[in-house]
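Continuing the batch. This is chain 6 of the set; chains 1 through 5 are on the previous pages. Same settings as before, nothing changed between runs. Recording input and output for traceability.
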Amino acid sequence: MIVDETAAAAAEVVYRLVEASKERLDRIEATALLAALFVETKHFLLARKSTFDVAAGLVEAGADPRHLSGMLGSRMTRSERMARLKAAGRVQTVNFGDWIVATSQLGSYQSSAARALLGLGAHVAFVGGEAKERVRVNMRATEEFAAKTGVHLARDLAIPMGKALGGGGGGHPTAAGFYGKIDVEETLKKCVERIRALLAPFQS
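Output for chain 6:
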């Protein structure tokens, strides 16, 4: 396992590994890494100086940032649209002071549904589903929530909860996920309990 907590995206780590190996990226490889960098950092909103250094190196290797929007702008499939609507129909919300936390259950497209719940007004969204005898939870938070509360979804929720539930987790401050071995409803309840404790100082 290679871990670099200073990197804003896994694509940065991959690029550094290529550099260390003295290999040279071709245009297609560089473009794929630049696209990954773009997506992982939310269109560079989560970027750091190192991110732009890597992006510059990828452009030098032949990647063209002008092509990213066309590559990544694929239309949402019907099944993904239906999944988002199902998640919205099953949503449950809890208020902690000024913050709205939403939970929902979905068999697929959990990350897409979590993003959609933020668009509907939630500050934090947990969407869980069961697959291959384990539960997977995707979580998303707004930039405002992360900035004002200091809650880091990966550090404060996904990683410790994954370990506690016999699985694993990871991610970023506003986008993370984990898997565990108990049922999805109980897992989502534990997510709410965990964030309730984290937000206790913000509740009057």
